[in-house]
Amino acid sequence: MENELSKAERTRQFIVETTAGIFNKKGYAGTSLSDLTEATGLTKGSIYGNFKSKEEVAIAAFEYNTGRVRKQTAQLIEKAPTYHEKLMVYAKVYHSFTSANFPEGGCPILNTAVDADDTNPVLKEKVAQAIIRWKKRIEELIQGGITNGEFKTDVDISRTALSMIALIEGGMMIAKATNTPANLDTVLKTVHSIITELKV
Fold first, then answer.
1. Which pLDDT score, from 0 to 100, does residue 2 have?
2. pLDDT in tens, 87-106
3. Which residues of 14-43 are buried (b: 16+ CB within 10 A; e: fewer)?
4. Among 116, 78, 82, 97, which Cα is nearest to 187's?
């Protein structure tokens, strides 16, 4: 059947899903091969029989983690009746970034961006692509709100999208570094204000 995975595909998926949280918490450099073999119960040969390198596993883990966040966000955006509420989804989803719905270790974009900066250009590029994709989605929602008559027509769409991302990611970084989730709540209030100010 079409939805049935081959044994090799199932093994790859198992490795990715089992190690995704480890990479997200410990980073690429901090994750050892023994971490992967211990978590999966597989041998080094089995892991490298499915992936060319640790970096390839890390990339797949990053894509899996960011995919989880995108899927959760997309489902909530789809249900939201107005463009204002669709944009507010980002504040709500990231407000709960420590919940069971989020990848183990928190936001994969933040974690991987810090970990890969100046040390792993391939992972850094994956983070850049994720941010560009996120920015484009926010821009589409703002443009949808303008077209629908919900938002002001003179909105600087690109600046607003980047500002939202910067506040969300920065708020999570501050909350994580200070071990004070309330700091993220404070920053997300600014995200709420920015979105509300878009309204006609």
1. 46
2. 999 988 887 665 666 788 88
3. ebbeebbbbbbeebbeebeeeebbeebebe
4. 97
